[in-house]
Amino acid sequence: MIKVIVDEILENNRLDAGIVSVLEGFSRSKIQALIKSGGVMVNGQIPKPSVKLKYNDLIEIDDTKTGAVDINIQPEDVPFEIVYEDDNMVVINKPSGILTHPTPVERCGTLVNGLLFRFGENLSSVNGDFRRGIVHRLDKNTSGLLMIAKNNPAHEFLAEQIKSKTAVRKYLSIVKGVINEDFLVIDKPIGRGFTETCKMCISADGKPSITEVRVLKRFKDATFVELKLLTGRTHQIRVHLSSINHPVYNDTLYGFGKMKIKTQEQVLQAYKLEFTKPFDNERVQVEIPADEKITKVLRFLDGKE
User: What pTM value is reported for the model?
Assistant: First the structure.
């Protein structure tokens, strides 16, 4: 059984659309069939596929009906760096190229597999075994900082900071084209695409989404930026930047186009976190240097590669 507590990302989504993001690799039509067959419950009730999700709703998915096998998530020695730790939480630096958590399709090599190897049972279980310890997420090819909870009270304490926007999350990226403004705010609602279930889009019916953009350096046809999330939607930064015709470097899903220098997908890094330490009034700030993808592209743009 896969258990998911609805967070800020899933809140206000239709049930079928929300589960598509949880069960990556499954089509919306298959998810609708799973719901109609009784393979999904919300707060102990059999729902309709169109029901709107509310914050803290409990979704239970019978993964034996998805066709997946081996429901146990196994510990694996997946490499990641610990950059902060106390009795209730850690902050880790997730490498690019690994999923934050398993899916019914991909059960191995994820950050959660690595967390189980490193911390065993000392991880929150609020979101079930598939997301042990995971308070918030990063896309597979986005690197950087993630808060991990060691117990359920800490998980709820940290999740509330994300919901209330008292936790600060900042990113570094390089985008296509020159952004003329030194600072701008992108305030556009984001919803799930209907033609491509893996893709999000700007939608009048979407969820309110706000990203702050600060220019760090301009190049001939690119801009190095710092981004601050004021909401936490799936692919938010990537969708917002694409919507103003400045897609993230090498983000092929959202239209970067032809590249002059090759990197792994999207040049985007969560480089700074600020939060209140669980059960304490101490504010903690964690920052890491620009990663390999960003430094490689910056060197190229500076004419050093």
Answer: 0.80
